[in-house]
What does this fold into?
Amino acid sequence: MNRAPLIFLGIFLTLAFSWTGIILVNQIGYGSLKPVFNEDEGAAYPLQTPGLAARGKLVYEDLGCIYCHSQQVRRPGYGSDIERGWGERQSVARDYIRESRVLLGTMRTGPDLRNIGARQTDPTWHYLHFYDPQITSNGSIMPPFKFLFETRKIVGQPSPKAIQSKLPEKYQPKPGYEIVPTERGENLVAYLLSLKDTYAYPETKNVYVEPKPEAGKEEKK
Amino acid sequence: MASAHSLASSLNPATTSDDVKRAELSEIDASTKWPALFLLASAVGWLLIGTLFALISSFKMHSPDFLGNYEWLTFGRVRTAHLNAVTYGWSVNASFAVAFWLMARLSRSVLRHAGLLIVAAVFWNIGVTVGIFGILAGDSTSIEWLEMPVYATPLLFLAYALVGAWAVITFRFGKSPHIYVSQWYILAALFWFPWLYSVAEIMIIFAPAGGTVQALVNWWFAHNVLGLWFTPIGLAAIYYFLPKVLGKPIHSYYLSVIGFWSLAIFYNWAGVHHLIGGPVPVWVQSAGIAASFMMIIPVIVTAINHHMTMVGSFGALKYSPTLRFIVFGAVSYTLTSLQGSSMAIRSWAEVTHFTHYTVAHAHWGMYAFFTMVMFGSIYYIMPRILLKEWPSAKLISLHFWATAIGITLYVADLSIGGVIQGLLLNTPVLAHKFGLQQGTDPVPFIDTVKATIPYLKWRSYAGILITVGHVAFAVNFVWMVARSVQTTKTQPTLFRTPPEMEVTAQ
It folds into this structure.
């Protein structure tokens, strides 16, 4: 008796089932969500990522930042994302509709970065942090990204982008030299500064629940 | 089969049925020799490369300055190179070889045109090399499990298509009237993988789906590549080698059928549990959680089937290297799968999601289950295709103990570290209750990092132990291939000589 066709049919149908359920249904259901136009501001949210930041996103991808940093804020009461100040509200599907590559991430070896642009607004902080995370966050296990900087001889006027004056003693270059971020470094910082989901969509007003002070949590456990 | 050998013995009374069967098997084994050897040698090469990348990434996690000035070796790239080298280099090469060899034997079909299969294998390995080089050079797509840049993927797909077509042909030309459960698993895996891979490539990279639907595609693929490719191949090997080495049939045919179909139905949906709490519809998360739970059925059914086959034969573990690795893998499969189901529970995911606990779980599955089963299979296959024995039983023993202790230490250590990290990170009230922190407010993030460092260091020590095992394996492998046939002994290489040879493999 040859059961091969029957087995094959079963093999086909099982995967077809999940492909339809998980992917097709959701692509049809919310795959073409539209931005929300705010008439007062004359802007459509989520905002388009500006050009410099869009290039920075490519740097974020090629360096593999996603393996330690997530970009999603969970609802109040589930994890302590909101308490940690990682966002004002839960991330919703509409936040990601402009992104041709969604980088939700699955690890939090480092903090969530979905709203880093709203939380850490000073570019200098980011440059120092990239140069060596120990400068701004002592004890961090983030690797240094000195290769996003260039140490070069000062020719004529010193560059306004130079950061060595802010660096601690041990990182100082030889006299007559300056440390400036490379183009990729600047793009990456521009990308991080662009990361903020601060706009309240109609659906976020529904999902946002004021966190109950601990009582609800203890009950659940 | 019964009629075949009664016919043979009626024609030539001097020929025993066993001799006929063995002659046929050795002809089949001989036909698989060159492709299998090429695939396995590539696999061993990638295993060493992947292990080196693993060690570098592991050291970097507790000593971030280690090789810190080389952009090519920054953590995000070298960790990704590790994943791709061990997944697409080691695991896929090994699973191709094992799947083929099993398919040819079980279909009782000589492998035709082995040369083209080697061409496919060469393409695959070039694709993986280009892909990993691309990742280190900075062309990673940053999509988990699909990081290889677009210029590597068509090559991989082409190679895969050739390989898949070959397996189906071998199956079609088969003489065996029965389809053994291992063949079900292999056929299914060979069919599922290209579907998963092409959908994921298209819907994430070439024509991206809208917003977070990409994340659903990503985890539908990434979890299914484990569940619908590596798991079936691993289970196919267990279903073949366990009864084969023991010389007795599998406990229950019906349990293996239930195990197969319940896996096929439920595993598919489980991947969404990677997005619990994320910005995707809650109903699909719930479906993923339910499916993860239903996975308990195939896992328990398969575990019972394997265990009942083993009952009464545990003594054989003292002698057979193949059996020892396979049984370690089979037990790990049960445990890691049950752990996986538990990790889908929302309140447990709240603690463990985003932590090293998940990393421990992934290694429990891909290493303690799949890789150990592949090791066991290779110990069985190599002597039969090369007609030589393994040169050193001591090296096999070192390989087993270093990897078995290494991975156990790895999983235990990182699981504990991951739970502590998760409690501090996500559930301060619980962490306080367990005495991990002073108050019930979230501790500063840096404290969640510092708490994991001892565990990350121990992970590196475990990694060193595993590396020792891999080197022992590679030395034995190269030695075996290189040495001349004349010097070999005729007895199989066992850990020790059994009182009677009946438990040894034929």
About this structure: Chain A has a mean pLDDT of 89. Residues 36-216 of chain A form a domain with the Cytochrome Bc1 Complex; Chain D, domain 2 fold (CATH 1.10.760.10). The longest strand of chain A covers residues 149-153.
